[in-house]
Amino acid sequence: xxxxxxxxxxxxxxxxxxxxxxxxxxxxxxxxxxxxxxxxxxxxxxxxxxxxxxxxxxxxxxxxxxxxxxxxxxxxxxxxxxxxxxxxxxxxxxxxxxxxxxxxxxxxxxxxxxxxxxxxxxxxxxxxxxxxxxxxxxxxxxxxxxxxxxxxxxxxxxxxxxxxxxxxxxxxxxxxxxxxxxxxxxxxxxxxxxxxxxxxxxxxxxxxxxxxxxxxxxxxxxxxxxxxxxxxxxxxxxxxxxxxxxxxxxxxxxxxxxxxxxxxxxxxxxxxxxxxxxxxxxxxxxxxxxxxxxxxxxxxxxxxxxxxxxxxxxxxxxxxxxxxxxxxxxxxxxxxxxxxxxxxxxxxxxxxxxxxxxxxxxxxxxxxxxxxxxxxxxxxxxxxxxxxxxxxxxxxxxxxxxxxxxxxxxx
Length: 411
Known about the structure:
The chain is mainly alpha-helical. 76% of the residues lie in helices and 0% in strands. It has helices at 3-17, 24-29, 32-64, 69-96, 103-124, 131-161, 175-189, 191-200, 206-229, 235-254, 258-292, 314-339, 347-377, 382-385, 390-397, 406-410. Helix 7 packs parallel to helix 10 and helix 13 runs antiparallel to helix 15 (390-397). 30% of the residues are buried.
């Protein structure tokens, strides 16, 4: 069988496997899902070709030209040349195609494969006739590494500058946050490959480098979220949004391998940040309404005879108390209506935030009612002013942060 025939048979085998000759333009035109599937196939074809088909051809050439090394190598180079070129050209096309964050993982898969196959390629493709093919393998491996690294660099920048206008009206976890966190989790499945990649470019200690990169991605995400949080007109919702998102980041890190890398200090610092945002939310949302339940400004100038019906001030004081109850009712209903549309997706966090509000609001309300309720109850239409019992407030607080829509509330 001539070399041409053997070469044709080999090319035919690859075609039967499904190997296509695709260039950079073909790759650019493809939908990402299609391309991703083709890359998966290519990895599979490369393994079969190097481990079975090329290895088989090598045996045949070795047997035919036993003892004549130069002929062995020339025959093998002639038979496999076109097939190797077709396979590598697809790899080259991917490495040169437009960079985008989702391509990082397939680039790492391809880079991993090329490193894995390199020893066998060295063994099979020996001598001067195969030199060009050996070099092509090295060049492709290096180029995949280069593109992967650039893609990785792009990602950090893309996170920082992400300008998606997706507004989360209820202050919940932003799609960008979950996307970035999933991306980082995925990175850890590729830890060893990434470290290998850093060493390609001699970037010092690979572990330290991975820590730096991960920390920077987290930092980029937080500064972007800070920017997004300013879109809210209500400063309380700004705090709730930041609390939700940073809590999600911390929780995800604690449950993943990123925890070992970022360390306990990082986790502690960010847990404190979540707490700070929760406190800020509480202060902004509730301090005004709590003012209604204080005694300040209620006691009359003549030594505070509030609650006694003697003296000319009692009428004035009762009017003030009524005013306080009215203001409280209006403010609480408004808070309830607005904030039951807001969302705290994590049930534990939601519960603890409601509890924190209840712990301040309910005692203040109970003591105010105990002290000044009787004045109103003795007058006309007490229910007009004392609209809620402490139990009502407790029940309504349980509806906060449920992300309810207006229509659900009206039912």
